[in-house]
Amino acid sequence: MRQFDVYPNPDSRERLPYLIVLQSDLLERLDNVVVAPLRSQQDGKSIPILGLNPVVEVGAERHFVRIQAPAAIPARSLRQPVCNLSSEREALLAALNLLFTGL
Questions:
Q1: What secondary structure, in 3-state letters, does 39-80 show?
Q2: Other Cβ atoms closer than 10 A to 4
Q3: Angle at Cα 61 formed by Cα 57 and Cα 65, nearest 5°?
Q4: The pTM is what?
Q5: What count of other Cβ atoms lies within 10 Å of the Cβ of residue 20?
Q6: Architecture, CATH, for domain 5-101
Q7: How far is Cα 19 from Cα 4, in angstroms, rounded to an integer?
Q8: Domain locations in the chain?
Q9: What confidence tens digit (pLDDT) does each residue in 3-50 have?
């Protein structure tokens, strides 16, 4: 499990189909992992907050990361990653920084 790996949401929510791993690879031995949900932009009902909700692509679909909704879940509940979003590292870390420090 690597930082910014994206997994299918084990709760199988339609609007929140994926989870992204936020915690460092250095902590992979922990029983729990900190994740944030990805919300589909297809419903058109939600608008991402600039700087807080990076917009990413998983497959051919656009989603935004709900950085403001982190959760710690059992690592064993995440099976096979569908992609890794390390290419969005700067935007993801900036969003986490905004959430926790306001900067």
A1: EECCCCCCCCCCCCCCEEEECCEEEEECCCCCEEEEHHHCCC
A2: 20
A3: 50
A4: 0.94
A5: 28
A6: Roll (2.30)
A7: 9
A8: 5-101
A9: 999 999 998 778 899 999 999 999 989 999 999 999 998 877 788 999
